[in-house]
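Recall that a protein's primary structure is simply its ordered list of amino acids. Everything else, from secondary elements to tertiary packing, is in principle encoded there. The following example makes that idea concrete.
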Amino acid sequence: MIQDLASDIEPIPLQRAQGAGRIAVGADGERTRLARLYQDGCAKIRLPTDHAASTLEAVLINSAGGLTGGDWMSWRVDVAAGAALTLSTQACEKVYRARDGRAEVAVTLNAEAGARIDWLPQETILFDGGALARTLTADLAEGARLLAVEAVILGRTAMAETVRVGELRDRWRVRREGRLVFADDLSFGGDMSSLTALAPVLGGAAAFASLLLIAEDAARFLEPLRAVVGVSGGASAFEGKLFGRIVAKDGLALRRILMPAIAVLRGGEPCPRVWGL
């Protein structure tokens, strides 16, 4: 009788984290000022004062404390002509084990003529059983500049964590004046430990990063970037684009390479202060 009653009870749907953040900035002479700010759900945006920074900075926050299956986050950035905005995150985003479904994150970046966007979130930590589908879509006007960096850590080696199974999908699409100029699809899934152990994939490493610079002078940063990255990654530059990947044994080793690499691509300007080790 008890079993019959239990079979009639429908499972209670789990609460899901949802958030949407929007920020728009414009140029006021040589300064960049906030034009619009929108926050919904667990998406928060803060504008710290950093007099040492050459651009306006925005820090994105997921107040839910992490993501799991069924959660979604959306960020939209609009930078007007001549303005400059650097975006980072308060902490590493954490993707926890998913009971079903996957977490979804959508990033939309729009830069008008002569604008600059530096998209520099801190690392995403994927835990065992985690599933994440992420998209980055950028629309750039002529003369706009984009630096985009995404870093992923597969478990925390300091806590003896490994990622045996999971899913990660990263899709990048960048257009200039409506024309597709860059596309990249990265996909891991299933038996993550066996897949990432393969030499053509990560060779047993547990951390990696993708870096993209879209700028008229992108090629001049290629050799300085290669000098910083060394044998830990590779990069190429062509037609106003520079793309590279870095691989490291763990998150700390990745940061020690990634932070100088970002500084190179920013013309010597360091990472946002929230990145401080």
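The longest helix spans residues 251-265. DSSP finds four helices and 17 strands in the chain.
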